[in-house]
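ok so for the tutorial part 2 we go from a plain amino acid sequence to predicted structure tokens. step 1 is just haveing the sequence, like this:
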Amino acid sequence: MSYVDDIEEVFEARANPKRAAQQKAYLRGQFEFFGLTSPIRRELQKPILLKAYLPKKEELHPIINDLWKKPQREFHYFAMELLFKYYKTFDQDDMELFEKMAIQNSWWDTIDYIAPKLMASYLKNHPHQKFEYVDKWNATDNIWLRRCGLIFQLHYKNDMDPVLIEHAIKGNLGSSEFFINKAIGWILRNYSRQNPDSVIAIVDKYPLSNLSRREALRLL
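step 2 — the prediction. this is what the tokens look like for a chain of 220 residues:
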């Protein structure tokens, strides 16, 4: 796994223990860190993400699995950004990997990349599967998969599917989970840029939480 060894060597060389402790505290002590800011991390990994240095697609999954098992959060961020390099070639096996990543080492910072970047890219190329996945995720007790079903369309802009947005919301009504209710408001807020009247209609139609309602109407 020389590819993983290379990025580990680069990250370790610039580790900042003081900042690492602050970053760990920010994510409630759930993950270890090298203490790299996002700009520094991206600058360090830039040569390793050059096209000429990228692993072959068939080598990718073992590398991602190895990165995802490591304790430092920077490895997880790198793994997601490495995966996105292959977004045009995502297939069913990749989607299974994204789901696995969503339920392991889970917190908002990874979910909010996995859903609107990785899962979104797959589902944009396989639109006939959108409802299938949203229903699958809503049928679980995993809040992070449910959040994925709500926010994967965040960056679709004019390609947002209003029927699917409403369908995903209906599957999560009555939740007391902060990250679910925040996601409902977030996707509605983004959709309000394209269709404010539809968002107002949804807010009026369903018993949304105060958090969802407030977030949904923030731009209106």
